[in-house]
Amino acid sequence: MKAIRVHQCGGPEALIYEEVLLPEPGPGEVRVKVEAAGVNYIDTYHRTGLYPLPTPFTLGMEGAGVVDIVAPDVTLVKPGDRVAWCMARGAYAEYAVVPANKMVPIPATITTEIAAALILQGMTAHYLALSTYPLKPGDTALIHAAAGGVGSLLVQVAKRAGATVYGTVGSEDKAELARQAGADEVILYREDDFEAEVQRLTGGRGVDVVYDSVGATTFDKSLNCLRPRGLLALFGQSSGPVPLFNLQVLNQKGSLFVTRPTLGHYIQDRRELISRAGDVFIWAAGGELAVRIDRTLPLSQAAEAHRLLESRQTAGKVLLLPNE
Ligand code: NDP
Known about the structure:
With 324 residues, this protein is of the alpha/beta class. α2 packs across α8. 29% of the residues lie in helices and 27% in strands. It binds NADPH dihydro-nicotinamide-adenine-dinucleotide phosphate.
């Protein structure tokens, strides 16, 4: 079968489209014929070595398709089932072997592509808005990269929870998309000082929570956007990792809270996984959560997908399709 593998970490050119052996499921595992693999920022961290992995490895933390075969001890799914999964590596391939307990059945009401586009970023938006800082009516939230894959979903889940949402984006086109997602105010943070804008919009109070996926270039000012005892959820680093940080700053800026959450810790067991994915899929099926597929590309063009994502040219989800 064909797969995208990394032999030596580096830029997008490190993604090699090559023939590999069809993987066999071990105990507790399932082999899935992949119909769509989601492209996520974490894939770029694996590719560059920011999150180190032993080489060679097959990329991809999110996918959806049809169960092909299952190990004898697997009862959760059976061949022919439509499933989606995330947080197990190997989705950039024609077939992926995944632990059965990561499988989420896809409801008949949504397509396999939508499931692949939603499961990782949708559950991320779900835990950030409903668990990390459980938003309620009257809360104010600042969401960076509000037209991005996670960002546009997070805006929608935050609005659904009743919050007032301020979004930052890198271009006018993205501003329009963030507004469509429901953002109350949108700030072009490459032109305008988002800290000053948030202070103006909140009458100097600051927001209750900042959801920051951008990292290096936004972190310091994100802290300045918070009200006393507000919370910064630093959940990504699209502009680079945040440097070492003096905790005393949290005292000086208002007894602030900072957390660095990750999806794996918010889908700790199968009950939590099925509950979060179930919500997200039901909302999507009912038209309450819109996932924007920015584009689909053949699996062989994974390097191009990474170039687009890293150069801020995408707004929403990028999918790789092995069958194209
Ligand atoms: P996005 O679709 O949000 O793409 C990244 C966006 O970040 C860009 O489109 C751009 O939007 C913005 N950005 C700002 N500065 C830069 C920069 N210097 N280089 C590149 N992009 C920049 O990606 P994802 O939705 O896949 O992921 C967003 C972030 O969330 C990532 O950092 C990822 O690691 C993190 N994440 C964390 C999870 C967790 O559980 N902790 C789970 C999933 C994702 P604009 O042009 O509007 O500025």
